[in-house]
Amino acid sequence: MPVLIKDSQSRKSILVSCDHCHSPFELSNYKKESVILNQNPLSNPQSVDGINKDIEHIYFNCPSCGHAYTCYYTDEHIRAMQANLRKVQRKQSHRPTAAKARQANELHQSIKQAMQLLRIQVETHDK
């Protein structure tokens, strides 16, 4: 992952340095692409090895050398949990309670674990 040089005040861009060419660049936008996994035609059409086919890969590239850095992967289940977390956080901001904070933390941890598992499954699927 590139080295963080400084965090700008507006959460829109961050100055980073590429691990490969060491060129500094401003990270201001991420790219999103659908991930298509090689699928066995006899398997469930909705999933591949238990992985939902509707997978999105969020990443960015170094503008100097083009090296790609993966931020994360999501699927329908993860995006639903993220939407639920945003809902809980909105409720928490209007009327904070310990139960809502605990629920938000549990959702955050579940999302983190699901993303880690999905990343491993996607990146090792063809290997």
UniProtKB/TrEMBL annotation:
Per the record, the domain of life is Bacteria
Listed name of the protein: Transglycosylase
